[in-house]
Structure formats: C-alpha cells, structure tokens
Amino acid sequence: MSNEIEQLKAVVEKLQSQVTRLSDQEDIRKLQYTYGYYLDKCLYQQVADLYADHPDTCVEFLGGRYNGKEGVKRLYIGRFSKSFVAGRNGPVHGFLLDHPQMQGIVDVDADGTQAKGRFRSMMSAGTHDSIKDTHPRGLVQWWEGGIYENEYIKENGVWKIFRLKYFPFWHATFEKGWAHTKPNYVPFLSKTYPEDPHGPDVLCDHPMLWPDTRVVPFHYEHPVTGEQVADDDLRAPHFGEDASTSKPPLVLSKPKSETNGTA
Prior knowledge:
Residues 21-164 form the SnoaL-like domain. By secondary structure, the chain is an alpha+beta fold. Helices cover 25% and strands 25% of the residues. It has helices at residues 2-40, 44-49, 68-85, 231-234; strands at 58-61, 64-67, 95-98, 101-108, 114-127, 141-155, 158-173, 202-203. A hairpin with a 2-residue loop joins strand 1 and strand 2 (64-67). The radius of gyration is 21 Å and the shape is globular.
C-alpha cells in the first residue's frame, strides 16, 4: 500500500507540473495576443505596461534596440504615439493599424520563471480617404508581415514581456503588392537616443527587410531530430548561388546576464 501511495504522489506531482507548464504557456499566449489588441488601437500606455520592470527589458524594432522600461516608453508612447495619433493614447478617426498575433509557439523554462515565444503578425494598415488632408501619412494603405522571437519573465507571479524582438519581414502597398516593393521601403533607424529624441539606445547588426529573406533564428530545437537549424540554412543567397555569398545569418540578442555584461 505504501508503494502505491508513493507512486500516486509521483503521478500527482508530475500532473501538477504539466498543468502549471500548460497554464504558463496559455498565460503567455494571452499576454502576446493582448499586446496585439492594444497595439491595434494605439493604446501605447497599455502596451508599455505589459513590459517587465527588469533592467534588461528591451524592444527591438527596425534595426534598433530600446533598452529598459524607459526605452520601451520612448518607442511606443514617444515615437509611435506622436507619429500615428498626434500624441494621444488611443485611436484617431480613419487610421487603421491592425496587428493580428498568430502561430504562437511558447516554451517555458524548467524553473517556470522565464519563457520564449515565436509569433507571426500580418498587419493591414492605412488611412481613410476622408483624413488624407489632416493625417501626416496622407492617403496610404499597406501590408506588413513580421516575425516575433520574444522572451518573457514572471514578475511577482505575473507573466510580462521581457525582450520583444520584432522582425518586419516584408512590406507592400495594397495597390501593387510585395513584388514591387522597393528595397529599404521603410528606412532602418539610423540615429540613437538622445541625438534622435525618440531613437533607440543601440543600432542592431545586419537588420533585414524584403526582399532579404534570411530566417529569423528559432529559439527552439527541431521537435523530432532535436537539432537546431544550421547557420548556413538561415542565410538567403540568390538562386543557384552558395550560402557563403549571402549576408551573415541573423543572430538573436541575449540579456546581459547571458553575455558577460554586453547585450
């Protein structure tokens, strides 16, 4: 009887661990989906509040890294809010900026305090004809596709965004599509803070935009082979050319605690 009780205890502990992991994964997906819904409607204060207070918190966007909670606010409440909605928190009439969050793959660390997630966004954005003379973007409509490779952290029992790394993979006007998108369609960030009051703290190496099709590295191993994708397979040479002719593979940044003090 005592052996059976011990076996049952072991089963219960295993099930509790599995339930906790599944619950954490669902909480993180909900967190990322919530991020998308707030971003859709330019609720930038609410977006910033989803980020952790950890000193290594950051957000990477368009070739720049915004460090710390202050950097996060500088991007969303500073750059985005002033550019899209004249500095307010919330939408303005006639401006579309939908960011659906899809294909979420979430992996929680063994200790249950940090996690990584890969998501995709397919953005539709633009202005209505009725505001073309009053909105700074004029009359415009565009598509955008991007990949997130994010890190999350549990602070005081609550999952928060730790390091959001967004790679806008392609852009296209609604009228002509992606086949005719000009290189560097959206210019990479080129100046850092404070030279640019809304700029990043650091410029990232080897940023990518369509038609560059390098692979955003996967945080996870292959579910069957247990292997990572080889670096050369992450590159994107021209048709028929060797991988060595391509730009270097993209590399995901890591927090300072994992890089001997350099992010």
